[in-house]
Design goal:
Blueprint: E1 4-9, H1 17-30, E2 34-38, E3 52-54, H2 57-63, H3 80-85, H4 89-94, E4 97-104, H5 106-122, E5 127-132, H6 150-171, E6 174-179, H7 186-194, E7 199-201, H8 213-230, E8 235-240, H9 242-246, H10 249-254, H11 274-289, E9 295-300, H12 311-329, E10 335-339, E11 345-349, H13 350-353, H14 370-378, H15 388-391, H16 403-407
Parallel strand pairs: 1-2, 1-4, 4-5, 5-10, 6-8, 6-9, 7-8
Antiparallel strand pairs: 2-3, 10-11
Helix pairs in contact: 1-2, 1-12, 6-7
Length: 409
C-alpha cells in the first residue's frame, strides 16, 4: 500500500489555509505519497466515522490560491477521555498514514502538542508537524516572523480602515473601529499604523496599569480632544477586541453586556459587536461631560478571514508547505514548521514552546519595541501636560485624559 499523509485544519479560517493544504498536497504527491484531507478538524481523529477525501493534483491546483478552507474546520478540542478511548488509530493503520499535518493557531498548536506526546507515549510510528496559522499573529515564531494569514488580513483591514478614515474626514465625524485579536493587538496595531489612525488601543498598552473601561474610553477621548485643539474635527479610533477579553468580566456586565463563553473558556467576542459596544459607552461619556462629537461604529473581523491571500501569503504558505516536506524527510516530528527570511525551514519543537499547563502561550505585541514606540510616539494624537490649558475649553479636568498618566507610562 502506498505511504500516505493526512491533513486537518483547526480553529477559524485565515487567508492562506488552502495555499498551505494544497501546497502540502502538491509537494507530497510529487514525492510519491497519497494525500488525504480530513474534514472537521481534530474531531475526525476521535470519530469512528471520519469524513475524508483524497486530494489529487487537479483539486490542489484548483484551490491553492483561494480564500477560505476547502477542508472544513472545527474548534473541537479532545478531552483526556477522548485520547484514552476514542483516538482512531485504525484510520492511520488502514490508510498507511505516516504523517499528520495540522494547520491552526494557538489552540490547534496546543492540541498538536498533546497529540505529539500521545503518539510518542504509545510508540505509534506516526509523525506530526504543525503549520502556524492565525490572523492574530500570536504564535511565538522567532525573529518576529508573522503567522500566515496575518499580512493578508492586515492588508484588507487597512483597506477598510483607510476607506473609513476618508469617510471620517469627509463627513467631519469620528469612526470607532474594532479589529479582531483575542489575546494580542498585532492586527489592530498594524491597521492603525498603516492608516495613520490617531489612536489605537491594544491590551499590551496596559503593561503598567490595570485595564478598565474608563481608561479605554479616556484614551479615545484623549485623541479626540487633542485633534480638537489642533483644529482637526475628525478621525478614527482602532480598538483591539482583546481589550475586552482582558477586562474584568464584571466590568463588561456593568456596561450592560451579557457574554457567553466557548469550549475553551474564551469570551465569545464574535457574538457581540465590540465597535457598537464601545461606541455606546463613548456616547454616554460625551453626554456626561457635555462634549458634542458624532461617532459611528465599524467592525473589522470576519470580513478579513476568508479573503484570497495576497502575494506575500501565497509565497509564504507555499514555503511553509515545502518546509513540512523538508522536516518530514529529515525525520522531524512533534514540531511546528518555521521558515526564516531566506526560505529555510526549521523545526520548533512544541514541547519547548509549551507553558506549565502544556499550552502554547500567545505572542503579544512588544509594547517597548520599535514598532509600537514609534507609532505611539510620532503618529498618534493625545493630550500631554502642554495641552492642559487649551483642553479646558472642552473639559474641566484635562489631566484625566493625559495619555501617559492613563497608562502610567
Amino acid at each position: 500500500m502506498k505511504d500516505s499523509i493526512i491533513i486537518l485544519c483547526g480553529g477559524g479560517p485565515a487567508p492562506g489555509m488552502n495555499t498551505v493544504v494544497m501546497s502540502v498536497a502538491k509537494t507530497f504527491l510529487s514525492n510519491g505519497y497519497r494525500v488525504i484531507g480530513l474534514h472537521g478538524g481534530y474531531s475526525g481523529l476521535f470519530s469512528k466515522t471520519p469524513r475524508t477525501e483524497d486530494i489529487d493534483f487537479f483539486k490542489a491546483d484548483a484551490y491553492f490560491n483561494r480564500g477560505g478552507s476547502y477542508l472544513q474546520m472545527s474548534r473541537f478540542k479532545p478531552t483526556d477521555k477522548d485520547f484514552a478511548d476514542n483516538f482512531n488509530l485504525a484510520l492511520f493503520q488502514e490508510n498507511n498514514i505516516k504523517l499528520l499535518v495540522t494547520v491552526g493557531g494557538d489552540d490547534t498548536a496546543s492540541t498538536a502538542n498533546r497529540i505529539a506526546k500521545f503518539l510518542e507515549d504509545k510508540k505509534y510510528p506516526i509523525h506530526n508537524i504543525h503549520v502556524p496559522k492565525t490572523i492574530d499573529n500570536d504564535l511565538p515564531l522567532p525573529q518576529n516572523t508573522p503567522t500566515f494569514g496575518f499580512n493578508s488580513a492586515k492588508d484588507e483591514g487597512a483597506h477598510l480602515a483607510r476607506t473609513v478614515y476618508e469617510d471620517a474626514r469627509t463627513s467631519g465625524n469620528w469612526l470607532i473601529i474594532s479589529a479582531m485579536g483575542r489575546s494580542a493587538g498585532h492586527l489592530a496595531l498594524g491597521i492603525g499604523e498603516a492608516t495613520h489612525c490617531p489612536m489605537t488601543i491594544i491590551p499590551e498598552m496596559f503593561n503598567k496599569t490595570e485595564i478598565t473601561l474608563d481608561k479605554i474610553v479616556n484614551l479615545a477621548l484623549s485623541a479626540i480632544l487633542k485633534r480638537n485643539i489642533l483644529g482637526i474635527p475628525y478621525g478614527t479610533v482602532v480598538v483591539a477586541e482583546g481589550v475586552f477579553h482582558d477586562l474584568d468580566p464584571q466590568e463588561i456586565k456593568n456596561a450592560g453586556v451579557s457574554m457567553t463563553y466557548d469550549e475553551h473558556g474564551h469570551p465569545e467576542l464574535g457574538k457581540i459587536s465590540k465597535a457598537v459596544l464601545f461606541n455606546d459607552i463613548l456616547e454616554k461619556k460625551f453626554k456626561a461631560i457635555g462634549l458634542k462629537v458624532k461617532t459611528r461604529p465599524v467592525e473589522i473581523g470576519y470580513d478579513v478571514r476568508c479573503q484570497d491571500p495576497i502575494a506575500y501569503d501565497l509565497t509564504y504558505c507555499s514555503e511553509l508547505a515545502m518546509g513540512v516536506w523538508e522536516l518530514f524527510r529529515k525525520g522531524e516530528t512533534g514540531c511546528m514548521v518555521y521558515v526564516d527570511a531566506f526560505g529555510k525551514a526549521n523545526p520548533l519543537y512544541l514541547k519547548d514552546l509549551q507553558n506549565a499547563e502544556g499550552k502554547i502561550p500567545p505572542r503579544r505585541v512588544d509594547i517597548d519595541g520599535g514598532t509600537a514606540r514609534n507609532y505611539y510616539g510620532n503618529l498618534c494624537h493625545y493630550i500631554t501636560p502642554a495641552d492642559y490649558e487649551a483642553a479646558r475649553k472642552w473639559v474641566p479636568d484635562p489631566e484625566a485624559y493625559d495619555f501617559a498618566k492613563i497608562l502610567n507610562w
